[in-house]
Amino acid sequence: MKSPERLELLKEIAGTRTYDERRKESLKIMSDTDKRSSQIEEVITYIETRLGELEEEKQELMEFQECDTERRGLEYAIYDKELKAAEAKLQRIKQVQDGNTGKTGPMRQKLAERKNASQAAEEELKSLVMIVTHLLSSKTG
Fold first, then answer.
1. What is the overall mean pLDDT for the chain?
2. What are the Cα distances from residue 94, in Å, to 10, 80, 89, 98?
């Protein structure tokens, strides 16, 4: 037997071969564990980075919501003010209209009286024209 063969035989007899095989398996498991550990660390780093981004977005969203709430409040105040101003103008217009209605009532009554007087005058004029025409036709005839 050659030296390496004798060494292997001695290892087998001494039981160190099993130890060497288990050591190789253990080293392989440790290597796999190190790879998985580095992958896990990469995932954790990505998650932490993404979490930081999400926190920033959350903060921006909260600021936007505060600004949006303030904007809506201001818009409501402006619209409410404009509505009240429009209602006040409408009320003044109604008051002026009611005042004018009170003034135009007597004017309308006078207008109606004058129309009646005008119609009566026209009828009287027609009647006088007929009388004059009749008188003139009787004198000429």
1. 89
2. 121, 21, 9, 6
